[in-house]
């Protein structure tokens, strides 16, 4: 659940895999999920390299090849994806012992520098939709004594400023409120824009009025819906999905931005024709 709501908001991802164990079943699940929710770019970190004996270094090469094949099988460019080898634990210990450590002084710390360079080089800075109406899915909510209710989340599009009017939409009756404060990483802001993870202080809104999964939006820019049509892929058993068919009336859990709700499938369409059931591996 957390992986789904998190992955849906990523611009890119670091896939961490043990250099000792190689790809595990959850590695496949994470790659598939990243692909399904539209994460275009991945960088791989082969962790725990310090636990590989010098005489067994070819294991790292085998894990590298295995991962590239696995990534390619899910539609990623396996041959091109950067794979960095290192040890997060030993890098952390080195930095804790010497907070002023520099690149070139410790190979494990260097591996983290290499990882971040790969992220900078391989994962492009996305173009933010700052010219579109403001929209933010709410991830969490809390109260500040004497100030009011704060909704946190990642701004999906548009910009927001102190004094702006916003609507609280979804899961309950739509409410209108005013932004009285903005904060990001414990710093007060005048404005926030698409891509920012931000806390928004809302006037006249109680904590009980706000639920994870609601969205804040520019007034009149969106409407909530309880029925929709979607193109879906049914996971196979090997991909962590089902091994039996699904029929009309099935009640799955729907994950939409930061919320999850139980819904019902009322109709299946395949190539424009209505069908009664679908099998694992089907696109409908």
UniProtKB/TrEMBL annotation:
InterPro entries: EF-Tu_GTPase (IPR050055), EFTu-like_2 (IPR004161), EFTU_2 (IPR033720), P-loop_NTPase (IPR027417), T_Tr_GTP-bd_dom (IPR000795), Transl_B-barrel_sf (IPR009000), Transl_elong_EF1A/Init_IF2_C (IPR009001), Transl_elong_EFTu/EF1A_C (IPR004160)
Keyword Protein biosynthesis: yes
Residues in Tr-type G domain copies: 1-127
Subcellular localization, as worded in the UniProt entry: Plastid, Chloroplast
Record-level Gene Ontology MF annotations: GTP binding; GTPase activity; translation elongation factor activity
Keywords from the UniProt entry: Chloroplast, Elongation factor, GTP-binding, Nucleotide-binding, Plastid, Protein biosynthesis
SUPFAM superfamilies (UniProt xref): EF-Tu/eEF-1alpha/eIF2-gamma C-terminal domain, P-loop containing nucleoside triphosphate hydrolases, Translation proteins
Highest taxon listed in the record's lineage: Eukaryota
GO cellular component: chloroplast
Pfam families, alphabetized: GTP_EFTU, GTP_EFTU_D2, GTP_EFTU_D3
Function: This protein promotes the GTP-dependent binding of aminoacyl-tRNA to the A-site of ribosomes during protein biosynthesis.
Similarity-based family: Belongs to the TRAFAC class translation factor GTPase superfamily. Classic translation factor GTPase family. EF-Tu/EF-1A subfamily.
Record protein name field: Elongation factor Tu, chloroplastic
Originating organism: uncultured Scenedesmaceae
């Amino acid at each position: 659940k957390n992986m789904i709501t998190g992955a849906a908001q990523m611009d890119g991802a670091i896939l961490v895999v043990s250099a000792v164990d190689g790809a595990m079943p959850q590695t496949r699940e994470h790659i598939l999920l990243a692909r399904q929710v539209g994460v275009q770019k991945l960088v791989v970190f082969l962790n725990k390299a310090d636990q590989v004996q010098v005489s067994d270094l070819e294991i790292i090469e085998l894990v590298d090849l295995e991962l590239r094949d696995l990534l390619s099988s899910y539609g990623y460019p396996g041959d091109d994806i950067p794979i960095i080898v290192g040890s997060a634990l030993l890098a952390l210990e080195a930095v804790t012992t010497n907070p002023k450590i520099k690149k070139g002084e410790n190979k494990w710390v260097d591996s983290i520098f290499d990882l971040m360079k790969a992220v900078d080089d391989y994962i492009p800075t996305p173009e933010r939709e700052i010219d579109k109406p403001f929209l933010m899915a709410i991830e969490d909510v809390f109260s500040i004594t004497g100030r009011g209710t704060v909704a946190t989340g990642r701004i999906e599009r548009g910009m927001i400023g102190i004094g702006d009017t916003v609507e609280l939409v979804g899961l309950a009756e739509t409410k209108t409120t005013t932004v009285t404060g903005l904060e990001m990483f414990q710093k007060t802001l005048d404005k926030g824009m698409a891509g920012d993870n931000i806390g928004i202080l809302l006037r006249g809104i109680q904590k009980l009025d706000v639920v994870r999964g609601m969205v804040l939006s520019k007034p009149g820019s969106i409407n909530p819906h309880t029925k929709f049509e979607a193109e879906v892929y049914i996971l196979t058993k090997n991909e962590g999905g089902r091994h039996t068919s699904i029929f009309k009336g099935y009640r799955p859990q729907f994950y939409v931005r930061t919320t999850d709700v139980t819904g019902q499938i009322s109709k299946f369409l395949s190539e424009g024709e209505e069908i009664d059931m679908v099998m694992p591996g089907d696109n409908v």
